[in-house]
Amino acid sequence: MGRRSRRAQRALEAKPLDVARARGGFAMRQSAGDGDWMVRPAGPAAKRYTCPGCGRTIEPGMDNVTVWEADSLLGPEVGMELRRHWHTACWYARARRH
Ligand SMILES: [Zn+2]
Q1: Could you please report the per-residue DSSP string of 30-56?
Q2: CA 6 to ligand 1 center in whole angstroms
Q3: Which of 18, 43, 53, 68 could form a disulfide with 83 if both were Cys (CB 3.0 to 4.6 A apart)?
Q4: Residue 78: which of 6, 1, 18, 4 has the closest Cα?
Q5: Distance CA 38, CA 46 (A)
Q6: Which are the contacts of 84, defined by CB distance < 8 A and separation ≥ 6?
Q7: Alpha-carbon dihedral of residues 16, 67, 38, 79, nearest 10 degrees?
């Protein structure tokens, strides 16, 4: 974890509704070789997304996770605005590679 981790964590705790208001589960922080990521189980997809992991479509109803940078230089809110949808399996396959 980087030097900014503790401060970023406090910022998230100060605004629990920002993280929890969206549909699905709570976001979890995960450390990877390329930084820390916030990962939230999103449940069945509401619409089509393109998975950055495999480049294929996440069809409506498919299990997926939303992922965003935990320590975005632009702040936690902007980081969450830039979140991406991944197939659940693709994200965890990626996490194992890093
Ligand atoms: Zn995928």
Answers
A1: EEETTEEEEEEEEEE-SS-EE-TTTS-
A2: 31
A3: 68
A4: 18
A5: 20
A6: 49, 52, 66, 67, 68
A7: -70
Write out the residue range of the structural domain in which residue 60 sits.
5-97
Two tokens at 82? 């830039």
- CB-based burial label for 7 (10 Å; 0-12, 13-18, 19+): exposed
Residue by residue, pLDDT tens for the chain (98 residues) are 556 666 655 555 544 444 444 455 788 999 888 889 999 999 899 999 999 999 999 999 999 999 998 888 887 777 778 899 999 999 999 877 77
73: CA distance to ligand 1 center in Å? 26
**Long-range contact list for 2-11, CB < 8 A, 24+ apart?**
2/35, 2/36, 2/71, 4/71, 5/36, 5/70, 5/71, 8/70, 8/71, 8/76, 11/75, 11/76
Tokens of 55: 């480049």
